[in-house]
């Protein structure tokens, strides 16, 4: 399965759940610069090949983040929990499979049942979810955050 360089689809499940209004679709460009690797742990979204652009650094707010929708089953949360540090997680909530739709004050929020996860490490902070969000290994390539 191939994914576009420019994610544009919103998950039907997220739309039905009322999350579409909070969706942020990132338009990415091409950048050339040295790669910087950030080891963020396991790779849950095996569907996303290495080099897939997740977001531009400039589009990820400090203490916040963006949700990037690739298709009905593949969405990624990209966050900046502290200046210059970027993290990425599978956006599918570990409780009931809804898509997390917002990052606020370093919390990734799934509004379906109000589960909340840390944008630092993906660990559950509150709500019915018991498991953390799976982390995605990333690296910086120019001005982009990409799958490592």
From TrEMBL:
CDD domains xrefs: Rieske (cd03467)
InterPro entries from the UniProt entry: Rieske_2Fe-2S (IPR017941), Rieske_2Fe-2S_sf (IPR036922), Rieske_Fe-S_prot (IPR014349), TAT_signal (IPR006311)
Keyword Cytoplasm: no
Highest taxon of the lineage: Bacteria
SUPFAM superfamilies found in the cross-reference section: ISP domain
Position of the signal peptide: 1-33
Key words of the record: 2Fe-2S, Disulfide bond, Iron, Iron-sulfur, Metal-binding, Signal
Domain annotation Rieske: ranges: 52-147
Described function: Iron-sulfur subunit of the cytochrome bc1 complex, an essential component of the respiratory electron transport chain required for ATP synthesis. The bc1 complex catalyzes the oxidation of menaquinol and the reduction of cytochrome c in the respiratory chain. The bc1 complex operates through a Q-cycle mechanism that couples electron transfer to generation of the proton gradient that drives ATP synthesis.
Name assigned to this protein: Cytochrome bc1 complex Rieske iron-sulfur subunit
Organism per entry: Lentzea atacamensis
């Amino acid at each position: 399965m191939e994914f576009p360089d420019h994610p544009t689809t919103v998950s039907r499940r997220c739309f039905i759940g009322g999350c579409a209004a909070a969706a942020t679709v990132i338009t990415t460009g091409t950048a050339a610069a040295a790669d910087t690797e950030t080891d963020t742990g396991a790779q849950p979204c095996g569907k996303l090949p290495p080099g897939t652009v997740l977001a531009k650094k400039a589009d990820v707010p400090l203490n916040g983040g963006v949700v990037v929708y690739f298709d009905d089953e593949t969405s990624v949360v990209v966050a900046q929990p502290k200046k210059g540090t970027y993290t990425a997680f599978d956006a599918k909530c570990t409780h009931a499979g809804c898509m997390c739709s917002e990052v606020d004050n370093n919390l990734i929020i799934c509004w379906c049942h109000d589960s909340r996860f840390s944008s630092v490490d993906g660990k559950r902070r509150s709500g019915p979810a018991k498991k953390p969000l799976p982390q995605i290994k990333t690296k910086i390539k120019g001005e982009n955050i990409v799958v490592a």
